[in-house]
Task: structure prediction
Amino acid sequence: MTKRFAALAAALCLTLCSLTTASAAYFPRYTGASGSIAVALDSLGADPSYSSRAKIAAANGITGYRGAAAHNIQMLELLRKGLLIDPSAPALSGSPYFPAYTGGSPSIAAALDSLGVDSSYSSRAAIAAANGITGYSGTAAQNTALLELLRQGRLVRPGSPAVPTPYAGLTAANLGRVPFIRQDRNTCKATAAAMAVNAVVGAGRYATADMIYSGVLCRSLDGEVYTGSDGNAYRVTYKTDGYVGSLGELERAVDAALAQGLPIVAAVHSAASRHHWIVVVGRDANGGYLAVDPARNGSGTMASQARSMAAMGYSFGLADYAQPHYGYISFQPR
Result:
């Protein structure tokens, strides 16, 4: 009887674990030598603060987190295995997604092979289409975008139309090939603008300094024209810090940009900052906005730094005015 109960418990555990794995998104695997969970998270560009660690602990079934050594070691061990759930990553809904790839290969074909997934050209074309990457021809940019999604556990399986794809258009094609840029103390807008332009042109061509004119952030950006990686020209519209606008206007601008597969820089605020700018790049599985925050302590590609805007605590608008201001930097095809 005891053996039968133990077997049943083990089977139940495996079932629950597989369900949890299928429905979760994970931090990248930590390969460093530090024995500190805070240092390890920080090295991956994740918020290492106590409040953040408490949320991570709760998402991983560690109750009553108070920063105890045992809890921190438990989280660190999961992080080393690539099994630490990231509560700020887009929520997943299980089977519509391929399992997250934690290997080191830069090849999408090899990564799919390691997961037991058909890696043929026709299969990759179907996967690309399911993830909003149109006109798949096996280019390095397209394969890199697929690999980035697979590493994050956000690569949608073909035949899962109910799951919204996180990115589209130029964003889907380029987000995994352009670098994340971390801002200096007061350059969030210029840094966000540089990343957004890079996501349009498909290369890490611009830096924060390129968006600063005569000491003014993004001063001459309005009306600038950039050639996208698709060969089309895109004109910039810049609504400055001083632009009042409205929440509805900003939301419509964001929705229009995402519908066209383009990034948009948006003015936001949070409990920690009343005046900030981020790059909105897509939607998570719940329909919320995905964004890249230049204030994060991270590296890698823009795709690797995309997080839920709500989970990061941001709301639209600059809150350091008597009346909120709703500026943005958007791109329109000419």
Summary: The beta strands are 212-213, 216-217, 225-227, 233-239, 264-269, 276-283, 289-292, 307-308, 315-316, 328-333. The longest strand covers residues 276-283. The two ends are 74 Å apart (CA to CA). Confidence is low (pLDDT under 50) at residues 1-23.
